[in-house]
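[Q] Does anyone have a clean structure-token version of this?
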Amino acid sequence: MKRKTIGIFLATVVIVASSLTGCGKLLDPQRAEINNSELTANRPVNEKGEPDPLGVYDNPVKLKIAQVVNPSDVFPEGQSATDNDFFKFYKDEMNIDVEVMWQSGTGEDYNEKLNLAISSGELPDIISVNSAQLEMLIKADMIEDLTPYYKQYASEIMRKNLNSTGGKSIESVTYDGKMMALPNVKAFKDGYDLLWIRQDWLDQLNLEVPKTIDEVIKVAKAFVDNKMGGENTIGLLGPSSSNLLYADFQQSSATMCGLDGIFQGKKAYPGYWVENDDGKVIYGSLTQETKEALSVLADMYKEGSLDPELGTRKDADEAWKSGQAGMFFGPWWVGYNLADALAVNPNAEWLAYPYPLTEEGVWAPHMPNPSDSFYVVRKGYEHPEIVFIINNKLLVPEIGGKMDSMGIPVAYLPGRLLINPAKPLESDAQIIYKYLETGAIPDYDVSEHTRMENDLNTVKDYKKEPYDDLGIDKWNVSKEGNFARIYSTLVGVGAIDKGYEIGCDEAYSLLYGQTDSMQKKWSNLKKLEDETFLKIILGTEPLDKFETFIDDWYSQGGTEIIQEVTEAVSK
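[A] Here you go.
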């Protein structure tokens, strides 16, 4: 399989806009006007009474939301998912009264409840959706046109970050010249899957950090054979049953405890649209590299070095936090959950690495869609600007730092989207290390590093000397304050920086959106893929089943879809 190797600078990134009907047309500036009375009727204003992106509502505004709840999440004493300091901040600082309309679990549970809400017409005031749900709501005429509110209320930082993707983020939510949602902008670092490993277990067994797939297998087996986590030790942990086995073009961020690292080590990109050796578009799940990776995973499962509850595990987070697991693949921000693991075992030392490498000795991560999560506003809600006001506030460095220090998982911030610069020239970790090495505040772009002031002010509260030693005994661990961010940055983002130093061969999907045929046929094709791959890994189907899967995939609609993707890519 041949892939286009794309450098680290955003200007070289080629990402094809979604081919959804009506999507991708330029935002119509003529629609960016609304009646002046609408803009001044209890809209956010500054001290002079003027509309302001960072303003406060004169009168209280009610906001009904849907909330995703993870049962393993921990809140400060006296707080909960529906009564916490985040909600208090919204009331005190923006005059927004937040009400939880309904709750769900993660993944499919949320999607099912959202689909029921769409069918019944009983929607929250603002809703987190993916691209398919966005189009469904547009066709049903159930959400507001946000064009005029973007013009009036989007802050400068928000605009800069939205434009850091070369216009792709705005295009992803523009239909017939109307901005129908506020998109996220993922820092590209959010797409990388790192190998998180119990460094203390490696040290106890006198093992080196595994850099190749073969070494990962060896270490995973050693962890299991030596019962490092007890009788039920897991060598390489897999995802919760509700999560993906690997990222795909529709959900392209790093997958918590997914198996992406093994696929990437084989230069396999299932779920992505790539080029074959002839330069033609092919679905990455159909390649021989993917078959080779499945063979590796099947062997690992058979020998017991891969999660024995793969496909049935309810909560992968609980498995590593409780001390059972020795390795998993995950994003840079795992440190935000580290305090829970350290509460069980204060000596648990989780470090991250850009491994395994390919046979050529490079790191070959899949890259994310810059915008794949969106907030929409219910049709008829009186304050469509609220999604801009909330996210403007959260983009203010001091406020973002304050939210991080409250000890509450940031996923519980109502209406929050990550709207980051796609790729700053210098990472947060590099800036912090400069400061630790010299003692002097380095120059940096505040708009790209909105939380850096707080990071530099607090890093020495948590990181002990020597600063280049990331062992857990060189940290002042805390569930509160800025510890989680500092740890995630120095360990997680630092690992990404190391990947660049080694050599990074980034892989982008040729398309991240949907085609017409996908809307009718993709769910069945995806089910076919998920079930077949899991059965191959678990050994209930032989590896040869992969060839049958390819034939079935083409015959059940894949041929038509590849033609559509090819046409979309060639435009």
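[Q] Thanks! Anything notable?
[A] The CA atoms of residues 1 and 159 lie 38 Å apart.
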